[in-house]
Amino acid sequence: MKANFQNTLTSSFLLYVDHTILKRGEGYSNVSSKFYPVSGIYNNYYTYAAPYKQIVSDSSITGANQLTGVYLNGNFIVPGQSGLVAINHYDGEVIFSSNKNSSTISGNYAIKDFNVYLTDKSEETLLFSTKFEPKNRKPQTITGLDVNELTYPAIFLRLVNSQNEPFGFGGTDMTSCYFRALVMSNSMYTLDAACGVLRDSAHDFFRTVSNNDLKLNAMSSYTGTSYNYTGIATGDNVYMSSVSVSQLKTSTSAEFKNLNPNIVSAFVDFDLEIVRAPHAY
Asked: What is the pLDDT of residue 230?
């Protein structure tokens, strides 16, 4: 089935939230690290991961070091050189066409203070059943993070419901979408900071982004064309009609015994509106 408006809106909203936290909240840190061999998900390719995720890929964020290439035994290479196929910023990985286990791979880049994920899981599952690793690194010997490891601080976005209501003649509707974000952090300070940035996005407009403009390859990875959010967010206007924040209060009830005591959490609810003509074919 081909992608439709809802697919575009959901992915565009994730990109907007990610950009807003990075831009308004300056939610990133510049770091340097090695990349370590991990189990890859692509046959006949070799994957090396950083001890951090996610890596900032948005070149419109001033001050954030961009990972456009890595150092292989001290020599800087970019995709297309020395077997480097692509860079997956989302999972903090670099992908090679040949085995580099005997080489030293390193890089300078920015990591997000808050990772941003789309999820189809309920808040209860994320809070009580999902394994999270500390965001900065593995707790013991430093190694690369596997692709399926979730790290915090993080923001999980989920579409809760949507509806169309008549808005004008000619089949024009108002599409309303309600998204919920579960914000998880390791301190009240950073939790309040992220929630404050998101709350103040109320009454903003943002534009949708075409997936074709992301210029990613089949691995959803960077191959040389930089991603600049402000340069490609040029689609339909979406209005943020309201944003509300409610912090999660723990209790002594049995179900809270499984909640990681190092995590503090809050819900952020977004109401989005966009005028469109869904009946025109």
From this structure: 95
